Amino acid sequence: ESGGEKYILNIMTVPLIADDIRDHIKRLEQYAIRRNIETALETSLKAIRVDRAIDTSELAESCSKAIMDASCGIFGADTFSNPTDCVISTIERIVCGDLHGVPTGFLGLDAQIGGIQKGDLVIIAGGSSSGKSILASNIAVNMMDETKQAVLFYSMEMTKQQVTQRILSAQSSVEINKLRMGTYKPDEWARFQHIADLWKTRPFYIDAKGGQTVESVASKTRRKFRELGGLSCIVVDYIQLMRAEKSVGRTQDIDHITRSLKTLALELDVPVIALSQYKRTGTAKPTVSDLRESGSIEQDANIIIMINHEDAYSELIVGKQREGERNISSRIVLNGAMGRFENPTSTWG
Q1: Which one, of 205, 206, 203, 207, lies nearest residue 216 by Cα?
Q2: How far does Cα 82 stand from its chain's mean position?
Q3: pLDDT value at 185 more than 60
Q4: Paired strand residues for 272
Q5: What DSSP line would sit under 268-306, residue for residue?
Q6: Highest mean pLDDT range out of 43-52, 215-224, 272-281?
Q7: Which residues does 237 contact at the CB level (< 8 Å), separation at least 6?
Q8: What is the mean pLDDT of residues 57-73?
């Protein structure tokens, strides 16, 4: 009725269409994406109007994910790669050194894990006041400097001022207690101010809100990832202070949280560094079984790093890594006064 076989055959012989076929396909795909987004918006609007009991944060996450899925394109469903592409990309990564990951800044640890890879879920575990937050912030700052990309730091037990003060103290080599008590010397204050001025331009974003849900963290991370065009890493401080949107028991909640963090790391191809407490039994060195709610954490993590303090020294124990040796350790020095860990032979300032 629209022209029949003769008309279709005539279209196929028009040189303009043949020459411009790729652009034509792109336009068709864009129209399809627009329709997909329109459908996602209509579905979300219907959910808003019909289900009055749905939680607003869950609704926002659902709408955000629906739009993101719709915008991926109609040709995004086939995610399989053929062997040739896999081999070539693997060789390119080896030659370019990408398999080494981003250095943490701690020489012994980097020699054991080869840096932190994109898409990894890295667990930093330790007891109360063992320096989990300090180690995570030290690693995050180094990764930011290495990649020149932003860090998202979710703090659920410290304010943004406390996190910033620790970082500035570590960077300027001015003791935290001196800053708190106002007993710093003029040259120390000058050094601190200089670092503070430089830090104003650094892409280190802190979200300090207690008891966040993993859904809200994922939603905010996706939004910031699109806004900034990429991230060097995401830090969550810490797992046991997070909530699940629909709680069904603490063990199941932790399962959901760790699985969601791992999914987020893979989705954005960005490492997630999540902190966790462990429960010590006796005087033996910690193992992954000491982690609270350890089952899901051990299962989902790519790397588990445990902080252990002995009388004479401190160490980082690699309790798990998917692509390397387990239960190995390296020495490290905790400089609590300045809010940082140091390599044993490191000199600062």
Answers
A1: 207
A2: 28
A3: yes
A4: 121, 234
A5: HT--EEEEEEB---SSSPP-GGGBTTHHHHHHH-SEEEE
A6: 215-224
A7: 132, 133, 136, 153, 154, 155, 156, 157, 158, 275
A8: 71
Most confident of 52-56, 267-271, 336-340: 267-271
Q: Which two tokens stand for residue 279?
A: 């429960």
Tell me the pTM: 0.74
**Side-chain half-sphere of 41: how many Cα atoms within 13 Å?**
7
Query: In one letter, which amino acid is 182?
Result: G
Both tokens assigned to 8: 């279709």
89: left (phi over 0), alpha (psi -120 to 50) or beta: alpha
Q: Tokens 């802190």 appear where? A: 206
Q: How far apart are CA 158 and CA 160, in angstroms?
A: 7
**Crossing angle (nearest 10°) for helices 186-199 and 160-172:** 120
Work out whether the CA dihedral 77, 79, 80, 84 comes out positive or negative.
positive
Cβ proximity of 137 and 275 under 8 Å: no
Could you report the per-residue pLDDT of 19-54, keeping only the tens digit for each?
567 777 878 888 888 888 888 888 888 877 877 777
